[in-house]
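re the bet — no i am not wrong, look at it urself. input seq straight from the record:
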Amino acid sequence: MALIDPDKCHDVSLLERFDIVEPIIKQVSKKMVTLSKQSSSGALSLYTYDHMPNMIGFLVNNNYLFLALAYIEKQNGETILRAGGSDYFVYSKNDLFGGQEAIKRFQGWFTYIKDNGKKIGNDE
């Protein structure tokens, strides 16, 4: 799992809506402790990254990708960040309209976060 770094949310006015990031990290961290007591396989890992990506989503069993785009728009004279809360595109590794490629891009982004982001938890 990867989330935007809560420290970066304070620096950028567009990300004010992400005040919930810190409480989510605390909840996930507690769940990680619970899961680690039940299994030694490291059932859940959490990483943070330092800037908002243009795609957000989740990948199930390396086969089904639920993907939404993040973008900035002007509305009533205000600059607004749109991310999540919108319809997700659903891709399958075996679909006929580029699912494999979308999954590959998403996995590449996630691998980058794991390699370059900050890991939260016991291995910080």
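see?? The chain has one domain: 2-120. told u. also The longest strand covers residues 55-60. so pay up
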